[in-house]
Amino acid sequence: MWQEIIIEIVKGIGKLFINPLFYVAIAFAILLGYVRVKRERRFFRTRILWGWTETIRMFKDTWLYTLLLSILSVAIGLTLTTDWIVTFSVISVILVAVFIFQLGSPIIAASLAIIALWIGTKTGATFTILSFEWQGESNWLELALPVALLIGAAVIVEGILIRKNGALSASPILEKSDRGITAAGYLSKKLWMLPVLVVVPGNVIPDFLPYWPQFTLGNQSFGLVLLPIVIAFQQKARRTLPIYFYPKVGNAVSGVGIATIILAVSAIWLPIFAVVSLAVGALARLGVWIYFALQEKQGRYLVVPQDSGVMIAGVLPESPADKMGLIIGECIRKVNGQTVSNERELYEAIQINAAHCRLEVLDHQGEVRLRQHVIYHHDHHRLGLLVVR
Question: Do 201 and 116 sit in the same domain of this protein?
């Protein structure tokens, strides 16, 4: 039996590519990189990260979590239906396509999919999607439990990804403050994909896919399907530095996932709690976005021009500034012994001794630290710093 299951898993992986969500997500990840690079060049005349970074990290950041979720899903036996998978995929495509990634958490798409199945059951509505006849799921209440457990775990992973990678992908944006001063905000806009292996009852696999891999347990047949769970994330920081802001957001999102699973487990005794867990989780996830968005809007920009030095708005990877350990939000007070207060004075001071460029930097704790590095002629901007002018 185990050999059959392994064979079906291998076959099921190949069937990931028939889901349009897979291609839509990749296309929009490419578009994200293009838009980001264009914006960074408009503001700073250079890009910070390669344009394909979003597409590559879409899978690179998630492969381990995908493997763990797939193992847990199959081991526990979380069984989903084709109706829900199709509905979830269609809703996810729509949420990604509208480009408003604040609504891109998988728990929102999962909750809407359950609602759509319930409405379909009550109204008797049917649709034909690529030869697949969609209709409401009569056992939508029982289906809510495995959905809540799987999606709750995906939201935990979402929080981990935000905590670990949110600041790394935060792109600086120049904006005008309330006082008319040019300041820097930071937008993190990401797409991640978790192609999770799930079990689908064989009797609901559509006739137009007769080659779909199946195995039998007892008297019932099952199919293994790779379900692409797309995580779309967008959040902007301005009064809190990215390295401190996005870990807070990530922790809050993971908390939503944990609460969703705890509520879902209660459905073992009272089935309606699975639906409640999805509804509460979706509202809580929206609440996390709204709370942090309002919190950032209420305060003043943190990265603004300073009379006492040059505020660092960005650092180019592998540049001298990066190798010196300079960080966004630090303030360069002196270069080669010369006090600087703007970008022009900064690069004029570098000319004094580029071979052994010495910087006096005020860090986030208000402490002065010294940095030194050789600046070569081929180095971008001779240092690799993005500053607020």
Answer: yes
Distance between CA atoms of 88 and 129, rounded to whole angstroms? 13
Q: Is 250:162 a contact under the CB 8 Å cutoff?
A: yes
Residue 305 domain flag: no
Question: Across 103-219, where does the E strand assignment appear?
Answer: 126-129, 132-135, 171-176, 182-201, 214-217
Span 125-155, pLDDT tens digits: 666 655 555 565 557 778 889 999 999 999 9
- Closest to 92 (Cα-Cα) out of 151, 34, 132: 151
DSSP annotation of 101 reads: G
Range of the domain at 271: 2-298
Q: What is the pLDDT of residues 64-108, one digit of tens each?
A: 999 999 999 888 878 888 888 888 998 999 999 988 898 999 999
> How much is the pLDDT for 81?
83
Say if residue 270 is in the same domain as residue 377: no
Within a domain: 303: no
CA geometry: angle 294, 300, 303, nearest 5 deg: 115
Which pair of structure tokens corresponds to residue 272? Answer: 């309606």
Answer yes or no: is 200 within a domain.
yes
d(CA 225, CA 200): 7
* Own/partner long-range contacts of 317-322 (Cβ < 8 Å, ≥24 apart): 317/48, 317/49, 318/384, 319/379, 319/380, 319/383, 319/384, 319/385, 320/357, 320/373, 320/374, 320/375, 320/376, 320/379, 320/382, 320/383, 320/384, 321/383, 321/384, 321/385, 322/384
In terms of phi and psi (left: phi > 0; alpha: psi -120 to 50; beta: otherwise), the region of 215 is beta
Are the C-beta atoms of residues 160 and 135 closer than 8 Å to each other?
Answer: no
Contact 364, 344 (CB under 8 A): no
Predicted TM-score (pTM) of this structure: 0.87
In terms of domains, do 137 and 241 share one? yes
